[in-house]
């Protein structure tokens, strides 16, 4: 009998943001392969005899290679076990869930995808920043900070700077200077509002807001590091009006005009 692999999004950090379906599958799984940014409180819902396998990755250091993770998913499913691949955020948003689904399909393993709340939306929301707004933002894009140093992706920044109202950057703290330069060089105003949300949705959440020309110094002063979401666009102005979860570290933005 062949088991099933469930690619489950754990959400952005707050353990209560996992979906009902995701939690139900977690509670019944025989094997759970989980990532570094998954809240460990969720693992307390696992069965006593469930096998827990850590698959965490750090920048420039991978505890387990993706090929090994793929192998384990297929291996345990072919033993007839219920396998949960617990991934931070959403499995299909910069989570390599697509690659894992491909591996299951290639090996004839049943699989399901259980979407999760991605940090680009959740961290922004917990900082009082809606990624869309009827008058301020009619479009948004999710990008990774890694592409800021990719020569082949250079042309994408022109489109991002000119055609998208709100830009949400994952894994971008180390590339922040490059991101700012790319946007300004491609026509984005240096006065464009920007926010960094550190440990979004958790009690440790901290938010720094500024503009493209000020944010680098502010981030250094506040000692902001990964994991942090970067949100760029006029909607960041709303942080001062509707922030409900944490306090702004460095008040800098002017009051939004009505």
Sheet with the most strands, sense and barrel status: 5 strands, parallel
Which structural class matches the secondary elements?
alpha/beta
Beta fraction: 15-25%
Our Rg estimate from Cα atoms comes to 20 Å
Q: What is the number of E strands?
A: 12
Shape: elongated
Instruction: Please give the alpha-carbon distance between the first and last residues.
Output: 63 Å
- The helix tally amounts to 8
Mean pLDDT score: 92
Strands of the biggest beta sheet: in what spatial order?
A: 3-2-6-1-7
Percent range for helical residues?
25-40%
Give helix and strand order, one letter per element, not per position.
EHEEEEHEHEHEHEHEEHEH
Pick out the low-confidence regions.
Answer: 250-258
Describe the protein in words:
The strands form 3 sheets. This protein has a 5-stranded parallel sheet, with helices on both faces. It has helices at residues 20-28, 66-77, 97-106, 119-126, 154-163, 176-185, 215-222, 239-242; strands spanning 4-9, 31-34, 51-54, 57-58, 61-62, 82-87, 110-114, 140-144, 166-170, 193-198, 206-211, 228-232. Helix 2 (66-77) packs across helix 3 and helix 5 packs across helix 6. The protein is an alpha/beta fold and 258 residues long. The protein starts with a strand and ends in a 16-residue tail after the last helix. Helices cover 28% and strands 22% of the residues. It contains 8 helices and 12 strands. Strand 8 (140-144), helix 5 and strand 9 form a beta-alpha-beta unit.
């Amino acid at each position: 009998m062949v088991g099933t692999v469930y690619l489950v999004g754990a959400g952005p950090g707050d353990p209560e943001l996992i979906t009902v379906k995701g939690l139900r599958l977690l509670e019944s799984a025989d094997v759970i392969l989980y990532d570094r940014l998954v809240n460990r409180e969720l693992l307390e819902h696992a069965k006593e005899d469930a096998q827990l396998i850590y698959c965490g990755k750090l920048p420039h250091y991978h505890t387990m290679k993706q090929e090994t993770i793929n192998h384990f998913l297929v291996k345990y499913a072919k033993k007839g076990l219920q396998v949960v691949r617990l991934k931070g955020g959403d499995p299909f948003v910069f989570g390599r869930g697509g690659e894992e689904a491909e591996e299951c399909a290639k090996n004839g393993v049943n699989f399901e995808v259980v979407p999760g709340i991605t940090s680009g939306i959740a961290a922004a929301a917990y900082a009082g920043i809606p990624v869309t707004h009827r008058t301020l933002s009619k479009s948004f894009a999710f990008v990774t900070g890694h592409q800021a140093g990719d020569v082949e992706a250079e042309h994408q920044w022109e489109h991002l700077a000119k055609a998208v109202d709100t830009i949400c950057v994952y894994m971008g703290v180390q590339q922040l200077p490059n991101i700012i330069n790319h946007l300004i060089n491609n026509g984005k105003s240096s006065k464009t509002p920007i926010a960094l949300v550190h440990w979004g949705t958790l009690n440790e959440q901290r938010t720094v807001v500024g503009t493209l020309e000020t944010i680098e110094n502010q981030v250094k002063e506040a000692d902001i590091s990964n994991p942090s979401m970067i949100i760029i666009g006029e909607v960041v102005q709303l942080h001062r009006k509707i922030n409900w979860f944490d306090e702004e570290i460095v008040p800098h933005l002017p009051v939004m005009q009505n």
